[in-house]
Amino acid sequence: MSSAPCELILALDAPRPADIAPALRQLQGTVLWAKVGLEMFTACGPDCVREIADLGYRVFLDLKLHDIPNTVARAVTSVASLPIGMLTLHTSGGREMMQWAARARAEHAPELLLLGVTVLTSTSASSLHETGVAASPADQVRRLGSLAVEAGLGGLVCSPLEIALLRTALAPSVTLVTPGIRPSGTATDDQARILTPAQAAAAGANFLVVGRPIFNAPDPVAAAKLIAQEAAHASSAKLSSHAAQ
Ligand SMILES: O=c1ccn([C@@H]2O[C@H](COP(=O)(O)O)[C@@H](O)[C@H]2O)c(=O)[nH]1
C-alpha cells in the first residue's frame, strides 16, 4: 500500500481557465493537481494545459483515448511534449491498444503516468448490461484493471466502490484515481457509483477527482479545502492503523 496520503485533483470542467480563475488562484499551493478534461481541451487545446501548468498545478490530461493502437500511440506521442503528469485512455480499447500506448510513453514521456479508465463512474449495473456486458461493474473493473496493468499501464481510474477490490487484486504500486466522489448531502448529478471523500480515501484511493461538488458550492475554495482535509485525514488514519499492525 502507498505511504502517501490521498490527494485531491480539481476537475476543471469549464471551457476556459478564465471561467474559474478566482478558485484556481486561491487554491494554488493548497491543491497540487488539476484535471483538464474534454470540455476545456476541445475548447482551447494545448494552450490551456500550459496555462494551468504555469499557475503551478500538476496537470492530469483526461482525454480518455480510445481508438486503434497506432492512433492512440501517436496521440500519446503528440501530448508527450505538454507539461502533464497523468493521461487517460479507455481500457476497453484492449490489450494491444494499451501496449502500444505504454510503448509510446516509455519512448517519449517516461515520467508520464498512463491511467486506464475501467468502467465509468456514471455507469450503473443496468446501463453496463445494456451495452452487452453481462458482468457486474465490480467484476468488469477487476478484469479491465488486471488487463491494463498486464499491458503496462501504471494506474487506473475506477469508482470508489472498486478501490478495495483492486487493492486486493493488484500490486500496491498501481495508482488508483477515483472520480464519483460526493461529500454527504451533495447532489449525485449523473454519477452512479459514488462514495464520500473519507470513504474513498479509507478504501485506499491515491487521488480523488472532484468537480461539481467544488465548483457548484457557494464557496468553492472552502469546499475544496474541506474535501482535501477529509481525504488526507481518512488516509492518514488508515496508514497509521496499518503501521500499528
Ligand atoms: O469514470 C469516470 C472518469 C472520469 N470522470 C471525470 O471526473 C470528473 C468528475 O466530475 P464531478 O463533477 O465531480 O462529477 C469529470 O471531469 C469526469 O469527466 C468521471 O466522472 N468518471
Automatic annotation (TrEMBL):
<feature type="binding site">
    <location>
        <position position="191"/>
    </location>
    <ligand>
        <name>substrate</name>
    </ligand>
</feature>
<keyword id="KW-0210">Decarboxylase</keyword>
<feature type="active site" description="For OMPdecase activity">
    <location>
        <position position="67"/>
    </location>
</feature>
<dbReference type="InterPro" id="IPR013785">
    <property type="entry name" value="Aldolase_TIM"/>
</dbReference>
<comment type="subunit">
    <text>Homodimer.</text>
</comment>
<dbReference type="InterPro" id="IPR011060">
    <property type="entry name" value="RibuloseP-bd_barrel"/>
</dbReference>
<dbReference type="InterPro" id="IPR018089">
    <property type="entry name" value="OMPdecase_AS"/>
</dbReference>
<feature type="binding site">
    <location>
        <begin position="62"/>
        <end position="71"/>
    </location>
    <ligand>
        <name>substrate</name>
    </ligand>
</feature>
<dbReference type="GO" id="GO:0044205">
    <property type="term" value="P:'de novo' UMP biosynthetic process"/>
</dbReference>
<comment type="pathway">
    <text>Pyrimidine metabolism; UMP biosynthesis via de novo pathway; UMP from orotate: step 2/2.</text>
</comment>
<feature type="binding site">
    <location>
        <position position="121"/>
    </location>
    <ligand>
        <name>substrate</name>
    </ligand>
</feature>
<comment type="function">
    <text>Catalyzes the decarboxylation of orotidine 5'-monophosphate (OMP) to uridine 5'-monophosphate (UMP).</text>
</comment>
<comment type="similarity">
    <text>Belongs to the OMP decarboxylase family. Type 1 subfamily.</text>
</comment>
<feature type="binding site">
    <location>
        <position position="182"/>
    </location>
    <ligand>
        <name>substrate</name>
    </ligand>
</feature>
<feature type="active site" description="For OMPdecase activity">
    <location>
        <position position="64"/>
    </location>
</feature>
<keyword id="KW-0665">Pyrimidine biosynthesis</keyword>
<feature type="binding site">
    <location>
        <position position="212"/>
    </location>
    <ligand>
        <name>substrate</name>
    </ligand>
</feature>
<dbReference type="GO" id="GO:0005829">
    <property type="term" value="C:cytosol"/>
</dbReference>
<keyword id="KW-0456">Lyase</keyword>
<dbReference type="InterPro" id="IPR014732">
    <property type="entry name" value="OMPdecase"/>
</dbReference>
<feature type="binding site">
    <location>
        <position position="35"/>
    </location>
    <ligand>
        <name>substrate</name>
    </ligand>
</feature>
<dbReference type="InterPro" id="IPR001754">
    <property type="entry name" value="OMPdeCOase_dom"/>
</dbReference>
<dbReference type="GO" id="GO:0004590">
    <property type="term" value="F:orotidine-5'-phosphate decarboxylase activity"/>
</dbReference>
<feature type="binding site">
    <location>
        <position position="13"/>
    </location>
    <ligand>
        <name>substrate</name>
    </ligand>
</feature>
<dbReference type="InterPro" id="IPR047596">
    <property type="entry name" value="OMPdecase_bac"/>
</dbReference>
<dbReference type="GO" id="GO:0006207">
    <property type="term" value="P:'de novo' pyrimidine nucleobase biosynthetic process"/>
</dbReference>
<protein>
    <recommendedName>
        <fullName>Orotidine 5'-phosphate decarboxylase</fullName>
        <ecNumber>4.1.1.23</ecNumber>
    </recommendedName>
</protein>
<feature type="domain" description="Orotidine 5'-phosphate decarboxylase">
    <location>
        <begin position="7"/>
        <end position="227"/>
    </location>
</feature>
<dbReference type="Pfam" id="PF00215">
    <property type="entry name" value="OMPdecase"/>
</dbReference>
<feature type="binding site">
    <location>
        <position position="211"/>
    </location>
    <ligand>
        <name>substrate</name>
    </ligand>
</feature>
<feature type="active site" description="For OMPdecase activity">
    <location>
        <position position="62"/>
    </location>
</feature>
<feature type="active site" description="Proton donor">
    <location>
        <position position="64"/>
    </location>
</feature>
